[in-house]
Design brief:
Blueprint: E1 7-10, H1 21-30, E2 36-41, H2 48-51, E3 57-60, H3 72-94, E4 98-102, H4 104-117, E5 120-125, H5 129-132, H6 140-158, E6 162-165, E7 181-183, E8 203-208, H7 217-224, E9 230-235, H8 241-248, E10 253-255, H9 261-269, E11 273-276, H10 292-300, E12 304-306, H11 310-316, E13 319-321, H12 327-339, H13 341-357, H14 361-389
Helix pairs in contact: 1-14, 3-4, 10-13
Length: about 400
């Protein structure tokens, strides 16, 4: 029996984790008006209990690497076809009017469904895979692989009904910008309305994200180890064990593990400054996109020290821009924030004000409703026209 629903969103991870906040927000927002199902991949088999609380989330429970482990990318060549076949079968059973594919990892079965059943496809590009995971630099094989991945992204972007990106600048990375393209930023929902700023002692910096090279942790370790009146709080998945081992022996660096959403918000609410640093030679996508950390800091009303999104930082005056490889500059920014509580308050209030006025999920939700309403209205008209002809 075919069960007709409006939308299926597909993500190649469990959806409920910290790296999928955007997908969960989209599902929750669209669920207010439409029937929607989220398809995800429970790669580490730890999300079943959470999924049981969400009847509209369906997970493929097959353990698999994420790609950053040793030989992880090679192993994924085996697992991804299984995931794609599972997604395609679910699409064929539920027959959604619109399928929402999150990033290149999910697009293939969604595109096949679009072509075979003549349904609408939304391609949601959070990360350009050709820029994030397949660097153009290197040997001939790397360059060839980059060309292939980039060409695939270009093809699917051009053949989707709507292309979504997290910033306007991402569209500039495509040779030809698709005609129907919409920017929906990774703005978080407002979790600070009923969450007071927590009392704290001393001066606390916070780093959230993967424990890996290229995120400024090496530099921060060298900086804060000599600053006895400053604490660096770190939370995130460990992707580099040597870096983690080096970090945890420093007395004023506290590693809090991989936290759930509420625990993370409590930690951010009790911090003074958010640190968001990225080596753009390794992660060039941040030249065009925007890190969730910056928007999260704005929502929490705390200033940010970062080397990305200079236009946003300068326009809203919510933090200090530094160069990634300039330790003296980063240290100076940290000390300046530490020694001037009024400056921290000024930057934090500016960020919070900008968030409330423009960079919030309510604004993004309105754009989502608009594009989905148009697609579903067009679908309905096409179906009625076909029925009249019959």
């Amino acid at each position: 029996m075919i069960r007709l629903i409006d939308i299926i969103l597909v993500k190649s991870d469990p959806i409920m984790n910290q790296s999928s906040i955007r997908a969960m927000q989209i599902i929750e927002s669209l669920g207010k008006k439409y029937s929607i199902i989220g398809l995800g991949w429970n790669r580490d088999s730890t999300a079943n209990e959470v999924a049981n609380d969400h009847s509209n989330l369906h997970l493929l429970n097959i353990r698999a690497p994420y790609g950053y482990e040793r030989y992880g990318i090679i192993q994924l060549a085996y697992y991804f076809p299984i995931f794609w076949m599972w997604v395609f079968m679910k699409l064929c059973i539920d027959r959604p009017k619109i399928v929402h594919a999150c990033d290149l990892a999910t697009i293939l079965p969604c595109y096949l469904y679009k072509v075979l059943f003549r349904k609408n496809l939304i391609f949601d590009v959070v990360d350009r895979y050709s820029m994030t995971y397949v660097p153009k630099k290197g040997n001939k094989f790397s360059k060839c692989l980059h060309y292939i991945v980039n060409s695939l992204e270009e093809f699917f972007a051009g053949n989707s009904d709507i292309l979504i990106a997290v910033s306007d600048r991402i569209f500039l990375t495509f040779r030809k910008k698709p005609e129907n393209s919409v920017t929906i930023m990774n703005c978080p929902q407002d979790h600070m309305i009923n969450r007071p700023r927590l009392e704290k002692n001393g001066y606390k910096l916070i780093y959230t994200g993967a424990i890996r090279p290229g995120r400024g942790l090496e530099e921060l370790i060298d900086i804060v180890m000599d600053m006895k009146d400053t604490e660096l709080v770190v939370t995130g998945k460990i992707k580099d064990t040597k870096l983690h081992e080096k970090m945890v022996v420093i007395p004023n660096i506290k590693y809090c593990g991989f936290l759930d959403r509420n625990e993370l918000l409590d930690l951010e609410a009790s911090s003074d400054v958010m640190i968001a640093l990225y080596d753009l030679s390794l992660q060039s996508q941040y030249q065009y996109g925007m890190a969730n950390k910056v928007l999260e800091a704005m929502m929490c009303g705390i200033p940010v020290i970062t080397n990305i999104s200079p236009d946003l930082i300068n326009d809203t005056k919510c933090g200090i821009i530094v160069q990634y490889d300039n330790i003296d500059q980063i240290k100076s920014a940290i000390i300046t924030m530490r020694d001037d509580p009024n400056l921290r308050k000024f930057y934090g209030n500016n960020g919070r004000k900008a968030y409330l006025e423009k960079y919030n999920w309510t604004k993004m939700e309105e754009k989502l409703y608009s594009l989905y309403h148009q697609l579903l209205t067009d679908n309905s008209k096409a179906e009625n026209s076909k029925a009249d002809k019959l």
